[in-house]
């Protein structure tokens, strides 16, 4: 696998564009398109929230069918959630307009929305935006970057990544973009992720790869404990790399999964580190566990702890909060066997040995916790399983952003 420059336009046959439709924001782009020269097989995963936005319902029925897709239309600013029959009607109108303007099958047009819940989409602006997107779409990397910027809401930076790998003798590319900053919690989050690949792969293998990988990537991040109405992760494959069809249980499928995991994990970590008001990416590794499930439950409990997140914001080695979060996670372990370490680019320091504090340097701990990426490593010393979760620190900035989000 090789990391390359780019995002959703890195793979063969994919184009993208962004435009300012004036949906909610002024002075910035707020609509994007991803377009494929050839129809794509589609896989996807969606929010577990009982309250599901109209685009989630629309896309899910496409993913669950045999329908192929050539375009994704995304807007930021308004989520099209809790909008009733009218919201679903607007998804249909968006797809019809895109089908007409692009000359493709409207039944396969995917839609995505993110922003304020409860407001109706200004469909006339959406339709006008589609026309502009169709005119401006290009296959260059810059167009992919502009699309990644257009789907941001409270995000402070665009999120994109691309890799190549060999499927037999053929080079295959996977690229992606995402948005996510607040309302982020395991079981997906207020995130939109769009992954494109030129791999020729069976639909069954495509969905299997995406479904399994989400569990270790997007479902292992948290910013604030809120699971959104709009969570969507879509994977589109147009087959234009020209490789032999990838099927489950083959070395090529393993290579595909490895590349997809890198893309998804990179985007997931970027979202966690760009949490609203955050100053640091907070990574929690649980090692030495009896089972992977035990490790995942413990890691997510720590990364979701507001007290722990506040301690990270204050660069305070308050290890008791971490052990406490592990204790109420529901997973069974022996606290008197736990070793705990803090690690960053400033070094690594053991804080707990066998459940009690070591004679560590508070000054060194503060230095380690003052970096942009901080890792807590909890060793249960009970087995060989491990898991990693990602979150961020909790600062006053989070309240500043969310106290008046609608205005």
How would you portray this structure in words?
- By secondary structure, this protein is of the alpha+beta class.
- The chain folds into 2 domains: 2-273, L-amino peptidase D-ALA esterase/amidase (4-Layer Sandwich); 281-402, Ubiquitin-like (UB roll).
- It contains 11 helices and 15 strands.
- It has helices at 54-64, 84-102, 123-136, 141-150, 203-214, 251-273, 292-303, 306-313, 319-327, 362-369, 396-402; strands at residues 2-4, 14-19, 31-46, 69-78, 110-116, 159-167, 170-179, 192-197, 232-237, 281-289, 339-344, 347-353, 356-357, 373-379, 385-392.
- Strands 1, 2, 3, 4, 5, 6, 7, 8 and 9 form a 9-stranded mixed beta sheet that branches. A 6-stranded mixed beta sheet has the order 13-12-11-14-10-15.
- Strand 12 and strand 13 (356-357) form a beta hairpin.
- Residues 183-189 have low confidence and may be disordered.
What's the structural blueprint in terms of helices and strands?
Blueprint: E1 2-4, E2 14-19, E3 31-46, H1 54-64, E4 69-78, H2 84-102, E5 110-116, H3 123-136, H4 141-150, E6 159-167, E7 170-179, E8 192-197, H5 203-214, E9 232-237, H6 251-273, E10 281-289, H7 292-303, H8 306-313, H9 319-327, E11 339-344, E12 347-353, E13 356-357, H10 362-369, E14 373-379, E15 385-392, H11 396-402
Parallel strand pairs: 4-5, 8-9, 10-14
Antiparallel strand pairs: 1-6, 2-3, 3-4, 3-9, 6-7, 7-8, 10-15, 11-12, 11-14, 12-13
Helix pairs in contact: 1-2, 2-3, 5-6, 7-9
EC number: 2.3.1.35, 2.3.1.1
Catalytic activity: L-glutamate + acetyl-CoA = N-acetyl-L-glutamate + CoA + H(+); N(2)-acetyl-L-ornithine + L-glutamate = N-acetyl-L-glutamate + L-ornithine
Subunit structure: Heterotetramer of two alpha and two beta chains.
């Amino acid at each position: 696998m090789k990391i390359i420059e780019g995002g959703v336009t890195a793979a063969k046959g994919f184009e993208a564009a962004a435009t300012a439709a004036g949906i909610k924001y002024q002075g910035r782009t707020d609509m994007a398109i991803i377009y494929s020269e050839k129809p794509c097989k589609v896989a996807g995963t969606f929010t577990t929230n009982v309250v599901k936005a109209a685009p989630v319902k629309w896309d899910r029925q496409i993913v669950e069918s045999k329908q192929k897709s050539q375009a994704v239309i995304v807007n930021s600013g308004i989520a099209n959630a809790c909008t009733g029959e009218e919201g679903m009607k607007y998804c249909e109108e968006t797809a019809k307009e895109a089908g007409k303007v692009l000359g493709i099958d409207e039944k396969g047009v995917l839609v995505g929305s993110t922003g304020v819940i409860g407001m109706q989409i200004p469909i006339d602006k959406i339709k006008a935006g589609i026309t502009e997107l169709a005119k401006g779409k290009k296959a260059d990397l810059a167009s992919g970057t502009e699309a990644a910027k257009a789907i941001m809401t409270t995000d402070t930076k665009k999120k994109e990544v691309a890799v190549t790998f060999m499927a037999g003798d053929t080079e295959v590319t996977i690229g992606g973009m995402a948005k996510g900053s607040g309302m982020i919690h395991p079981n997906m989050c207020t995130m939109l992720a769009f992954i494109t690949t030129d791999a020729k792969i069976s639909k069954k293998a495509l969905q299997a790869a995406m479904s399994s990988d989400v569990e270790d990537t997007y479902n292992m991040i948290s910013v604030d404990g809120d699971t959104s109405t709009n969570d969507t992760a879509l994977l589109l494959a147009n087959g234009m790399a020209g490789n032999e069809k990838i099927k489950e249980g083959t070395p090529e499928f393993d290579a595909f999964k490895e590349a997809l995991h890198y893309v998804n994990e990179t985007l997931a970590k970027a979202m966690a580190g760009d949490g609203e008001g955050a100053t640091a990416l907070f990574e929690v590794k649980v090692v030495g566990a009896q089972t992977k499930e035990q490790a995942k439950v413990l890691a997510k409990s720590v990364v979701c702890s507001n007290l722990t997140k506040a301690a990270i914001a204050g660069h305070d080695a308050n290890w008791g909060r971490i052990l406490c979060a592990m204790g109420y996670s529901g997973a069974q372990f022996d606290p008197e066997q736990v070793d705990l370490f803090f690690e960053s680019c400033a070094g690594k320091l053991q804080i707990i040995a066998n459940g009690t504090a070591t004679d560590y340097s508070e000054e060194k701990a503060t230095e380690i916790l003052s970096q942009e990426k901080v890792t807590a490593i909890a060793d249960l010393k009970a087995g060989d399983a491990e898991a990693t979760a990602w979150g961020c620190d909790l600062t006053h900035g989070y309240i500043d952003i969310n106290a008046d989000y609608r205005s």
